Amino acid sequence: MFPFLVLVIKLILFDCFPHRMESLPDKIVQCILSHVKNAKDVALCTCVSRRWKDSLPYIKSLYFPRNSFDNHTGIDHPDGIVFKMISSIFQLEELVVYSPFSSTGLASWLLLAGSSLKHLELRMDNLAEYQTCVESPSKLDCISAAKNLESLKLWGVLMINSPMWDTFPKLQNLEIIGARLEDPALCAALQACPNLKNLLLLGCEGTRSVSIALPHLEKCKLDFYGLGDCSLTVTCPKIELLETHGCSWIRVPETNFLKKLSISNNAGRVYMVDFGKLAALDFLSIRGIQWCWDAISKMLQWASEVKHLYMKVEFTGDFDTLLEPFPEIDIVDFFNSHPKLQEFDIHGAMFAAFCHRNSLKNMESGFVIPCLEKVAVTIRSPLNAEQKMSTLQSLLKYGKSIKSMVLRTALHLSNHSNADDFYDDICTFQRMNSEIVRIE
Known about the structure:
The chain is an alpha/beta fold.
């Protein structure tokens, strides 16, 4: 809300100049009210004067916080109170309800305002309610009455059965936060939203195999709870941003416009990745306890044009082995294969893979890391300390454009006999390059 509107509303609500109320043009009154969303504030505004009450139909947004009816002692049911407020408004465009409600109440609200609503946000709170599986219509089914929605956000959703939704032709933003899903139900919900541009599924559990095929989707964030063994296929030719968590098998065949990609899995292993050409990719983040080495090497190979790279994978291996260390990685080949890399955040296992004698021997006088400006290195072990120090020195020597190097270490907590000496070497390295290097 604009500051001057806030001031005007406060002055009027506190009767600082009620005598001037009548002098305000109708358009100004309606404009001020259009920026009042909280249902309690709207109710207070209608008590200020008759003109405020007469302007109530021009409100565009209503917001009912979680505690809206905590102290309610009246005869009217909360569902009925919401109904009365909605029925007083000509064309409600935004409805946000965090307070508890029934499917019957929701159905009545959307029967009134469904045709004009553009944004709908509901705290469903039905994750543990068995009756939501059998009630008719369910809260999810009721949403079908709002056919002109442009944005839909749902909290605490139980989506076991496919929602009885017709097509939402104008819906561009769908967010589902905290949900128990079945794969067929999720598939049916997405099919009813063919023109989505933004999709967020956060804190969702129950999925095993998810397929997303949306021709206009540009941004997709997926966070699946459970064993981390979900299979994901994304067929979206316009996808620009993709973030996934909890998937072991990932296939994204159309990636011409993909600029930002983040893949993480802390509960399970990442076994397989299958991407199209990543020529437009600027940012890549890969995180997790264990990735198959084939998946890591493919991602690094495909992301040859990447500018920002974040790697935090603890172990590698294959389908039959657990918790294997990274194989040796030639630092010259790596940076020659990623010539546009500007920011590099590298954690323990990957950094250790750089730090071997053969890698540093291959450095020639003409070798240079052309674009690298920021480096962050996490060092967890004092093992191979000499080679690790040589690698840090080489990064500064050949990284002619480096402006910042951050070293994160917990060596002072280690019981290894060489830990203190290695930490002293790092501190000396920092002091000698204090304008660039800092220790966290």
